[in-house]
Write a structure and sequence with these properties.
Number of helices: 4
Distance between the termini: 44 Å
Helix content: 40-55%
Structural class: mainly alpha
Number of domains: 1
Strand content: 5-15%
Strand order of the largest sheet: 1-2
Order of helices and strands: HHEEHH
Radius of gyration: 13 Å
Shape: globular
């Protein structure tokens, strides 16, 4: 599959699945905001409301950190790391 085709698929997914402009999706998923990994980065909605597409509700996470934030044992740890890195607002 060509790189151009992969970009087309990502653009389509950003606009249809996430309902956000592709430029914003690329900006958020440039690298994991916790570890800096930049090969595979997934979009995560902090409040887990996929209809809340405000930029301050979305972060890019590598597959490991994304899985950890959805796991009850690691959720608090990952949220704390996001707060420490000023990626999310403290309540």
């Amino acid at each position: 599959m060509s790189v151009n085709r992969i970009e087309q698929i990502k653009k389509h997914n950003a606009e249809t699945s996430h309902n956000i402009p592709y430029d914003l999706y690329k900006k958020i998923t440039e690298k994991c905001c916790i570890c800096g990994f930049d090969f595979i980065v997934e979009l995560h909605h902090i409040d887990e409301n996929h209809n809340n597409n405000s930029e301050n509700n979305m972060v890019g996470l590598c597959p490991n950190h994304h899985a950890m934030i959805h796991h009850r044992e690691f959720r608090k740890q990952i949220l704390k790391e996001l707060m420490d890195k000023n990626q999310i607002q403290q309540n």
